[in-house]
Design goal:
CATH class of the largest domain: Alpha Beta
Shape: elongated
Number of domains: 3
Strand content: 5-15%
CATH topology of the largest domain: Rossmann fold
Helix content: 40-55%
C-alpha cells in the first residue's frame, strides 16, 4: 500500500482525536444542560449518543485517510483497436510535373495522399515512391506525421532511375503488404498518371498476383487526356523550358487510361477518376467497408487509487449516526433545503445585460469596442479576461502596440483556455506585422512561431494553430508573400471574457491562397528532407525514356 500524500496521512490521528474531544465536550455540555430540567432528562441524555464521539472521530479519521490518496492492488486493462493495412505508392516520374492538374500532377497526388493519411488515423500505412524503379520510404506504421514529411519531400530528383515502372511498384507494394497480418484486409493505393514505360503484360501479371494474394488495388488517376508539355522550373518556380527527348523534341505526356484500366481489371480493383474533386474521400469511402483486424493491447495498472473505500466508510458511519438519532429528520430537511435553494436562485437569476463594449463588438464597430474595452480594463486590471478583450479588440482595430501589450499580459493567465487564445492572437499579430514590415519580417515570424508553439502545448490538436505555425515556419524558410489570416478573436460573451479565437475557415486561408502556399514551400526545408531520403540519380541509358 502507498499514499499520494503521506504528510496528510500523518495528520489523520490528530484530526480524529480533535474531533473526538470536540464531540465529547459537546456531549458533556448537553448533559449539564439536561440536569437543569430533571433527573429523567439527565438519564436520557446519558443513554443517548454514547457512541457519537467515537463514530464522528472514526469518520473524520477515514476522511483524512481518503485525502492522503491510498493506493494498492493492480488491474489488467485491455485496449482493443481495429486497424487496416494500407500501402500508398506515389509516381514521382517527371511526367507527374505536367501542369494539367492544379498545381501539377505530383503536387495534387501528394495533397490527396496527405488527406488520405489523415483520414486513415489508426490504420497501419506504408509509403512507396516509384519512377523507373520503386523505393520503400516508410514501412507499415501508425505514425502519420512521419508519412506526411516523406510526402512533402517527394520529387522526381529523388529517384535514381527515370521513367515509370508500374509493374515493379505493384510488386513491391504487394510484398510490403505481405508482412501485415492476414486478419485485416490489405490495400494498395497507387497515385499515377498511368504513363508506364513497361508493357501492359507485366503490369497485368503483377495485378493478377495482387488479386491472388487477397490485396485490394485502388488506382488514383492523375492528369488529363490532352497531350501536355512537362515544364522544367528552377527552385523559385521560374520556367526554364520544357522536357525534351534525346532528339531535342519537346515531350508531350498524356494520362494512359488503357494502362490504368487494364491493371484495375486484372486485379478486380477500383480506378478513381482524375476529374474527381475529392479523390482522398473516394478512397476513404472504399476502404471503409474493408475488414479491419481487431488488435488488443493488455497493460497492468499498479497501485490503483482506493480513496473511495475509506470515504465510503466515513459516509456510512455519518449516515448511521444521523439515522440513529432523533435529529435525523431535521438533518434530511436541512439537506433538502440546501439542495433546493441554489436551484431556486439559479432559476430566478435574471440574465446579465450586455456591456457597451460587447454591444459595440456585436455591431462590428471595432473602434468603439476597442475604446470601451480599454475603459473596462482601467477598472478591471486584475482580471486576465479584461486584458484579453482589450488586446483582441485592439488587434481587430489594427492597434498593434496596445494589442501586443494587452495580449502579452493575458498570455500569462493561469486559465489555459484564455492563455491559448491570447497566444493564438499574439501569433496572428506577429504574422500580420511580418507582412507589413519587410525589414523586421524574420523577427516577427520568429515571434509568431514561438507563440504558436507555446499555444500548441495547451491544445496539441488545434488545427488552426497548427496551420498558422506551419505558415510562419514556411515563410521564414521561403519568400512567400501570402497575407496572414484575418483575426478571429473577439470580446463577445456576457462575462466579458468569452472571446473566440480564430479557427477553421475563419482563421485559415482561402482555397486559392492555400494552393499558392503549397507551391511556395520553402526551398531549404524541402531540400533538407530530399537530401535525407533521395538517391543518387543515374544518367538515363540511350533509348530509355526518362520521364
Amino acid at each position: 500500500m502507498s499514499f499520494d500524500a503521506p504528510v496528510v496521512l500523518a495528520l489523520a490521528p490528530l484530526v480524529g482525536g480533535a474531533v473526538w474531544f470536540a464531540a465529547a465536550w459537546a456531549r458533556r455540555v448537553r448533559i449539564r444542560r439536561a440536569a437543569l430540567w430533571s433527573q429523567e432528562t439527565v438519564r436520557q441524555a446519558v443513554a443517548a449518543g454514547r457512541l457519537g464521539p467515537t463514530a464522528l472521530a472514526v469518520a473524520a479519521f477515514l476522511g483524512v485517510v481518503a485525502l492522503a490518496g491510498p493506493r494498492w492492488g493492480e488491474e489488467r486493462i485491455v485496449a482493443e483497436t481495429r486497424g487496416l493495412s494500407v500501402v500508398i505508392a506515389v509516381d514521382i516520374s517527371r511526367s507527374m510535373l505536367a501542369e494539367d492538374a492544379t498545381p501539377n500532377r505530383l503536387r495534387r497526388a501528394v495533397r490527396e495522399a496527405r488527406r488520405l493519411v489523415q483520414d486513415l488515423d489508426g490504420d497501419r500505412v506504408g509509403l512507396i515512391a516509384f519512377a523507373g524503379s520503386s523505393y520503400i520510404l516508410s514501412p507499415l506504421s501508425i505514425d502519420g506525421s512521419a508519412l506526411t514529411l516523406y510526402l512533402d519531400a517527394l520529387d522526381p530528383d529523388m529517384a535514381s532511375q527515370g521513367g515509370t515502372g508500374l509493374a515493379p511498384a505493384l510488386r513491391q507494394g504487394g510484398e510490403l503488404l505481405q508482412a501485415s497480418p492476414e486478419l485485416a484486409d490489405r490495400v494498395l493505393v497507387v497515385f499515377t498518371d498511368g504513363e508506364a514505360h513497361d508493357s501492359l503484360p507485366p503490369i497485368v501479371t503483377q495485378a493478377q498476383r495482387l488479386k491472388a494474394d487477397g490485396t485490394h488495388l485502388i488506382l488514383v488517376a492523375e492528369g488529363g487526356r490532352s497531350p501536355t508539355r512537362i515544364p522544367m522550373r528552377d527552385d523559385h518556380g521560374g520556367l526554364l523550358g520544357y522536357q525534351k527527348d534525346e532528339d531535342g523534341r519537346v515531350i508531350e505526356t498524356v494520362r494512359r487510361d488503357d494502362m490504368l484500366g487494364g491493371a484495375a481489371d486484372a486485379a478486380q480493383g477500383t480506378l478513381v477518376a482524375a476529374d474527381l474533386p475529392d479523390q482522398a474521400g473516394a478512397v476513404r469511402d472504399l476502404v471503409a467497408s474493408y475488414r479491419r483486424a481487431r488488435a488488443s493491447e493488455t497493460r497492468t495498472e499498479q497501485s490503483r487509487p482506493r480513496a473511495w473505500l475509506p470515504l465510503l466508510l466515513a459516509v456510512g458511519l455519518l449516515v448511521a449516526q444521523a439515522a440513529s438519532r432523533r435529529t435525523a429528520a431535521l438533518v434530511g430537511l436541512a439537506i433538502a433545503c440546501l439542495v433546493a435553494l441554489p436551484a431556486r436562485n439559479v432559476a430566478q437569476q435574471p440574465p446579465l445585460p450586455r456591456s457597451l463594449a460587447e454591444k459595440a463588438w456585436d455591431r462590428h464597430d471595432l473602434r468603439r469596442a476597442r475604446v470601451a474595452y480599454l475603459a473596462e480594463l482601467v477598472a478591471r486590471r486584475k482580471e486576465d479576461a479584461a486584458w484579453y478583450n482589450a488586446g483582441t479588440a485592439a488587434l481587430a482595430d489594427s492597434d498593434a502596440e496596445t494589442a501586443r501589450a494587452s495580449l502579452a499580459h493575458a498570455a500569462a493567465s493561469l486559465d489555459p483556455d484564455l492563455r491559448f487564445r491570447a497566444l493564438y492572437n499574439l501569433g496572428l499579430l506577429a504574422l500580420q506585422q511580418a507582412d507589413d514590415d519587410t525589414a523586421g519580417r524574420d523577427a516577427h515570424l520568429a515571434d509568431a512561431e514561438r507563440a504558436y508553439r507555446e499555444a500548441l502545448l495547451l491544445r496539441p490538436r488545434d488545427r488552426a494553430a497548427k496551420w498558422n505555425l506551419e505558415l510562419a515556419v514556411r515563410h521564414r524558410g521561403g519568400s512567400s508573400q501570402n497575407k496572414a489570416p484575418p483575426s478571429g478573436g473577439g470580446g463577445s460573451g456576457p462575462s466579458g471574457g468569452g472571446a473566440r479565437s480564430s479557427g477553421g475557415a475563419q482563421g485559415g486561408l482561402s482555397p486559392a491562397q492555400a494552393e499558392q502556399l503549397l507551391r511556395s514551400i520553402g526551398h531549404e526545408e524541402l531540400k533538407t528532407r530530399r537530401d535525407r531520403t533521395g538517391l543518387m540519380r543515374h544518367p538515363a541509358e540511350p533509348g530509355v525514356k526518362d520521364w
